[in-house]
Amino acid sequence: MKGIRRLAQHLDISIGTVSRALNGRPDVNEETRRRVLAAAKELGYVANQSGRSLRQGTTNIIGFMMQTGTEITGQGDTFFMSVFDGVQAVFAKHKLDLVALLCSSQEDPTDYLRRVVARGFADGMILSATQRHDPRVELLSERNIPFVTLGRTLTDAGQPWLDLDFEGMAQASIDRLVAHGHRRIAITRPHDDVNLGYVFVERCRQALAAHGLALDEELIFRSTPNEAGGYQIGRDLVSLDDRPTAIVLINETIAIGFYRALSEAGVTPGRDVAVIGRYSPQAQFLSPSLTCFRLSLRDLGVALAETLLSTMPAFRDQYPHTATNKLWPMELVEGASDAPHFHQS
Amino acid sequence: MKGIRRLAQHLDISIGTVSRALNGRPDVNEETRRRVLAAAKELGYVANQSGRSLRQGTTNIIGFMMQTGTEITGQGDTFFMSVFDGVQAVFAKHKLDLVALLCSSQEDPTDYLRRVVARGFADGMILSATQRHDPRVELLSERNIPFVTLGRTLTDAGQPWLDLDFEGMAQASIDRLVAHGHRRIAITRPHDDVNLGYVFVERCRQALAAHGLALDEELIFRSTPNEAGGYQIGRDLVSLDDRPTAIVLINETIAIGFYRALSEAGVTPGRDVAVIGRYSPQAQFLSPSLTCFRLSLRDLGVALAETLLSTMPAFRDQYPHTATNKLWPMELVEGASDAPHFHQS
DNA sequence: CATAGTTCCGTAAACGTTTACGAACACCAA
DNA sequence: TTGGTGTTCGTAAACGTTTACGGAACTATG
Predict the structure, then answer these.
(1) CATH code assigned at A276
(2) What confidence tens digit (pLDDT) does each residue in A152-195 have?
């Protein structure tokens, strides 16, 4: 005898009552409930996941899809672990479990997701590393699976999304650098599949135009979103004849390699070239310390969770005023890397 | 009509035959199988996870347990993503899926794991961030859940484990530094709950003793395994009256903060103090570049997967010669941070 | 032609839950 | 007493699979 039957036999009551007691149904005597809960704890009973979700058609699991073995976003190290912590803080109130669904680099992400939803694995999904055109969005929309994306896509199917405020970062960076006297400003962007690059570049272009400046196409650096990519950008930058006096790094991890390339060329950030980047645990330990845009990853996780829940029928009423689309603000942390431009050009 | 019944109805055969066809049973006509497979693809049918695992008592899922919101090992996201990729390469051959089970920082890891196994969520587990005394090991052993740990525990229950070869790293580091003329060598270690610290410190002590040197207890630095911890170690080190001429950093991420602290004090790695650390994507971009111990994370993942499968009855015969315990070697990458010690002490 | 063997497929029972339904009982008012 | 109203619980039917079992249709063998 196993499972709920064992518990029922042990208490000499029916399995129906046991189930009702454990699930907090009102039609069970409080004394009985107490006994059931005590026995469950004693025998270490936890309802079998398969049986429960087969009957209920629900799993109480939310999947966070990630792709292994690849670097798409350039968000390193502890980024996701912090976001997860915020998500879980919300989920814990609703007995929802967060699991990371790991798509192998050998498998197509959309195929993987199709497999996951067809199997009925999760009640809802959080998608990250969204591409500019991302078939996963359409897939989940069609199947009516609740989901939220971290990152906008170009094909907006009306789904809920959160995204970092790259427009705000672009605007603030350009304004700040221009105010510091810079006129020739370089920017970076990820490869073409990622949407945020377009958003960022266009806003930089607009912000420069507002100051009567043009964005030099030669000064838009494209690279892999990792340290090596940053190194390459640094090499390219210092080798330019008409070197820019400032640069805005859109990714988090590229600053590390960028600094190294500058250092090898005898160029010092904050003196010879102003640098604004993104916060990472390493950023504040670069020398000179990086002026960067920072955000609370845990709060971002909380917002992701709340946005998702606000679209799920079972929880909607508990999150009535949650925005389904939001640009998440980033805060400027002043370092020593973007000192004013004193040289005359 | 849903699920397998829909498929059976569509083909006008029984659900039993459909199931047998999809699961590759021999007692089904090849022509029938072809038709079933085609129809399944056309209708996008994938067997419901709950139904299947309820009947079979097996989930085809392996869980990799991680703790969110905490830094125990000092290994970042890219670390695990690479390991995962190796694990999945093996699992893909056996139609096993890897998911990361995320234990919230609010919940006790052992309670979480108990919940997961009681629910019958996974067929097997991979544990990381193992503590010196880790109740999770006993839990899984008792329940007879196949598992492997990444990291040894003190309470060895005979379970399979893989671990990085910190002994080898300790020995090679000390030998190398002594050969370079260093006599006063500092080391670092994580906090007391983590086993590898003991292993590492003891081997360093032995290696030094073999050269007739004693390990100065004052030169064992303990810190959080992140950049801030490294910064603190750096500050502490430069403020010592009798400063060591070399240091071995056991964690991956601390080098970043350590370099910064040295830089602020006008101390240069590789000239004023020799530094040996662990490889990370950032390490090669530190300046001067870090001499460090590196390993193939993907291969480590492959080994983890094979070790786990070799303990599972269903797969054991396919991995007959897999060692259940293994110290994973690390390779020295020469940088510029551990130059010979030319000063007289 | 009878028998045995093989191939293929349908039937139905399980797996462990949850929950609609109704029964049993106690209580109270008429 | 009767009928109504709650409270509490047991019964049994789902949920979507897989698989043991047996039967039907062939084929081969004597």
Answers:
(1) 3.40.50.2300
(2) 998 777 899 999 999 999 999 999 999 999 999 999 999 888 88
